[in-house]
Here is the input.
Amino acid sequence: DGYITNTQINRRVDDTDGVSGLARLHWRVGDRLELTLLATGQNAHDGAQPLVPLGGPFFTVVRPAEGETDMEATNLGFTVAANLPAGRLSETTSYNYWALGPYSNLVVFNPGFGPIDLGDDITLTQRNWNEELKFVSAATPIHWSAGAFFTSGSTNGAALRTVFGFPVEGSFETIKNEDLSAFGEVVFPIARTWSLTAGLRVEDNRKSIERTETVPAPGFYSLNDRSEALLPKLELRDALTSEITLFASAGGGYKPGGFSSFTDNPALAAFGPERTTAFEAGATRTAADGALSTTLRGFWYEISGYQIERSFATGGASNDYIVVNAPHARSIGTELETTWRPATCLTVAGGIGITDVTLTDFHDPFTGQTFNGKRAPYVPTFNANLRVDYRLANGWFAGVTVTATGQTYYTEGQDDRFGQRSYTLIGARIGYETRRWRATLFGDNLAGEEYFSAISPGVQNGTPGAPRTIGGEVAFKF
Here is the structure.
């Protein structure tokens, strides 16, 4: 059962009902050849998306109807690998099938002139064929790997949107994609304690969309997009002492562009690729007895074409969900991670990351408003975690986790109406384990923190995080 209740129809909104499975067959043929067959499947019949109006109760809604979320997925993979004197050569063929539907949802929001009941009925089906060829050299002073990857797929979708039950948009689309890449990396020593890693990835991405609209009026558009990337990487490591390692790297990142199918305006549908120039540096210190290990790293990313999701925030030019590009953004931050084992039965681990993602050049393409110097949406100011695990040799175990998430804005204007303040979650577990079975009692969000895990500014609704949850689990091995 879900944790949000529709009081008008006395029904849970976000119940969960699913089953999944995995099968893996590994066959070793002689000393050199290995065959692996992997299959996974998932089927879910869940309730509607857990959305509640901002400013209202966290765990109750008032709506005349509720929806559902049905999803199924199948993944198949077959790998042939040869263990040669020079290294390992493998070829993998895989197929992915994913389907969403029916997905239906009803949200109530107030755009300023009165409440609106907005309904969505969506189906999506995605299929992909993938091929990967990869070679990893044997362990020698100079270690290298190389390969190529190809994927070809299509996504078919249909959407019907209603206001107070009357259709206002009906559309269906087909998006096709092809991606071809080649990659290689070599690691070699350059001094007694120094090693250098040099890598390169070349990528070619092609996409196309055909979209047909039936409501409110017949319409059609067809678009094509192609982008390429040349992504180098250099990493330098120095085993300064037996306990301290220094590292620094520079490289490129790439996120392909694409199409937003939830708009009937072809000028708004396409968005470009996101490209990153990344610099990182840090140090790791490990105690001689291995009981304490700490890593400190810092990073600086210069980003062009930063992709921003927009929802109902484009004035009269659009009233739907699209993605736009900010010409330039910068991400600067630091991370600290540590693990301490003061005794064989006790482990303490924690970390903190502080990130500042700034839109250094972004003018709203629809309103002309400037957001230079504003924080990018969806990025928390910090993340922190602490975990303490206690495990005895006789099978008893216990643990406590604490996670903290910094303030997060969901619009580039840093509007407090669409922001989530910092929050902290506490969880605990205790149990007993033998060779054949394990029993666990657990509690999540023990302090009963109320927070939004996501906010949709366009419909002035948010997804509340789960309240205090107490549960049990029993697992058997046979």
In short: The CA atoms of residues 239 and 245 lie 4 Å apart.
